[in-house]
Amino acid sequence: MLKLPKVLNCQAASEMSCRRRDGRLTRYERVVLAVHLVLCAGCRFMDRQFAILDLAARKLGYKTSFDSAPDNQRLSPEAREKLKKLIQ
Amino acid sequence: MINGVGTANPSGQGALTCLFSADSSSMQDAAITKDMPLAEVWVDQYGDLLFRYARLRVTDRADCEELVQETFLAALKGKENFRGQCDFATWLVGILKHKIMDHFRRQQRNQTDSLSEDSTVDAMFSGLGKWKKFPRRWHIDPQDSAMESEVLPALQRCMEALPESQRRAFVLNIMDEQKAEEVCKTLQVSSTNLYVLLHRARLRLRDCLEKKGIGQAGAVKG
Fold first, then answer.
1. Terminus-to-terminus CA distance in chain A, angstroms?
2. Which is the most buried residue in A44, B72, B130, B165, by most CB within 10 A?
3. Is the ipTM of this complex over 0.90?
4. CATH 2.60.40.10, applies to B7-109
5. Minimal Cβ distance to B152: which of A42, A50, A60
């Protein structure tokens, strides 16, 4: 017998949206979430925002590792001197 | 082989993989002479880079400085393991990455509130589970320059405000793209609990970015 998708609330939809991003949704859950996203504009925006968020986090992790960054992200002069003494 | 030094792959990117082993040969010695800078210039050349890498992942500034120190000391102790197969900076970042994971493990052992209620997240929804404040459309093209200039700095600030357990889960699983099983081991949580942490982290970050005006043309706040 065909199982009808249950109605989700937004909090549960946000949780499912996260798990879908990590590939942890069953086929049934994917249908339930898709139905909710069709009906709820706020959750559609959230779903898209989560995608942007994950992409931005990956970019940030990679970029800040190797590119230039603001001055407040530098070693303090004291720490720098301490390290130099330690290494020499 | 020194503790925490095995592969250097700081961002989960295959292209940056750097393998090395403890045995030394004349070829390796040549590579060291060619590729490894003198220890005297390490701090000036790589200190800030390592510090930034740690600072993005670890909240406390003093902890970050200590992690950089541990990294340099481990590199000094194990420099014969550097075979010149990757950039020296990448090798150092690989050591630091393992030091940070050790740091997370130590911190997580003392953490008792990782899965307690998150009132900030609960307050985003009504009793019926509906948004109290509906998410807005973000006018962002991920390929656009605004992603680099506005979203990334704002995200960094928002991440600093995350509870520690959520932040660690987000950093390891989302930012550094480590496998969930690996993250669960490091943080000593079940996979169910990891997804609870990631869900809360994403909701908080989404909310924080929206409050900073991300996605609303010309409205980015500090």
1. 75
2. B165
3. no
4. no
5. A60
